[in-house]
Amino acid sequence: MKRICVFCGSSMGYQRIYREVAEEFAKQMAARKIDLIYGGASVGLMKVLADTLMAHGGHVTGIMPQHLIDKEVAHDGIHQMITVNSMAERKTQMLEMADAFVALPGGFGTLDEISEVLTLMQLRLSDKPLALLNIKGYFDYLLRFLDHGVSEGFIREEHRSSLIVSLEPKALLQKLNSFTPVEMDKWISDLKTESHAG
Ligand code: AMP
């Protein structure tokens, strides 16, 4: 694994632990010589991550739409900034460039990015792993919602369980390394069978 794309808050969160674990995660990436791809911002946990990684010798690429650069939230100290035309194009570019995805706590932007990767994994348009760094149980409500989706028959168990979750940076990186993607064919044939049985 050479390049990880990290999704995380453009805010800092109220508690110090979010920032501290983001720093620890960046240090662990740098120690393994894993490059960072991220949204390119100079705000919130995004900035913490990029700054810590660079302070420990890591390489950072930002991908940012022009309209956000115009609002002056671009990080001007990173190694490479790729400018794109839209938020959609940014996600496409992130998906192409990264070997794996990690989400740290964040808001709507982070949720959108998590959802995009999970949907593409489900359709097997991507077989790159996604892991949530569940700092202070931040994603517990989302995980409970996904479990509800499984028990109500809207999310398949194998797709739910392909999402890696870890409380701790080192364990998360180990789990990413041993990921195997879900087989697509069985899911499609099950969907057809269900619909015909309906
Ligand atoms: P949020 O989780 O809503 O704070 O949004 C952060 C995530 O969405 C990041 O992973 C970014 O890729 C994207 N994003 C949303 N807002 C911004 C912003 N102001 N600057 C840079 N990226 C942003």
Tell me the β content: 15-25%
Query: Got a strand count?
Result: 7
Q: What CATH architecture label applies? A: 3-Layer(aba) Sandwich
CATH class: Alpha Beta
Question: Cofactors and ligands present?
Answer: adenosine monophosphate
Instruction: Assign an overall shape.
Output: globular
Mean pLDDT reading: 94
List keywords for this structure.
9 helices, seven-stranded parallel beta sheet, alpha/beta, 16% strand, binds adenosine monophosphate, 198 residues, Rossmann fold
List the helices and strands and how they pair.
Layout: E1 3-7, H1 16-31, E2 35-38, H2 44-55, E3 60-65, H3 66-70, E4 80-84, H4 87-97, E5 100-103, H5 108-122, E6 130-133, H6 140-151, H7 157-161, E7 164-166, H8 169-177, H9 184-197
Parallel strand pairs: 1-2, 1-5, 2-3, 3-4, 5-6, 6-7
Bound molecules: adenosine monophosphate (AMP).
Adenosine monophosphate is lined by residues 7-11, 39, 41, 46, 68, 73, 106-110, 113.
